[in-house]
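[step 3/7] inverse_fold.run input=structure_tokens len=164
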């Protein structure tokens, strides 16, 4: 089964892209910082605790997978839009920032779907950050959703400036 993390993947991708923009001559640093940004932003409560518990319990699996799939599709279109409407002199750094930003959730999904024992430590490490605050003080999902939209809109505005 796949881990539904509702800090939007597109949010992590956008933050990773911004990191790549900030370090245009250092793509590998952009990757590492994009990866770290994922873990740090997962500390922020974002309303997915109840959905994840329903997913684990087996009562809300289809709903959780639908959210993850929709988020994945939106993320793909974000990346396509980013690279087809905006000319970057540093696409590699932006790509590496995006890759680093989304990789933690992909590793968690690989662990949960394929039971890759070598990733068990990372699964625990990821949830250490994810549950740091949310484990005790999560937001209701609609509030977490709205908060991410409020974060995502200015990020997208910055990344896609002059694109249209």
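[step 3/7] decode complete -> sequence:
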């Amino acid at each position: 089964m796949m881990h539904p993390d509702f800090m939007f993947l597109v949010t992590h991708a956008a933050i990773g892209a911004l990191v790549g923009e900030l370090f245009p001559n250092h793509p590998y640093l952009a990757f590492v910082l994009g990866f770290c940004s994922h873990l740090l932003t997962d500390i922020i409560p974002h309303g997915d605790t109840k959905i994840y518990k329903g997913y684990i319990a087996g009562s809300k699996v289809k709903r959780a997978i639908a959210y993850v799939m929709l988020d994945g599709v939106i993320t793909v279109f974000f990346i396509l839009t980013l690279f087809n409407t905006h000319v970057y002199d540093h696409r590699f750094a932006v790509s590496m920032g995006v890759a680093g930003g989304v990789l933690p959730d992909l590793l968690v999904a690989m662990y949960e779907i394929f039971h890759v024992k070598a990733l068990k430590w990372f699964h625990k490490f990821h949830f250490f950050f994810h549950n740091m605050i949310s484990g005790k003080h999560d937001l209701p999902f609609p509030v977490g959703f709205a908060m991410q939209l409020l974060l995502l809109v200015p990020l997208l505005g910055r990344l896609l400036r002059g694109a249209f």
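[step 4/7] annotate
Residues 61-85 form the longest helix (25 residues).
Residues 110 and 116 are 7 Å apart (CA to CA).
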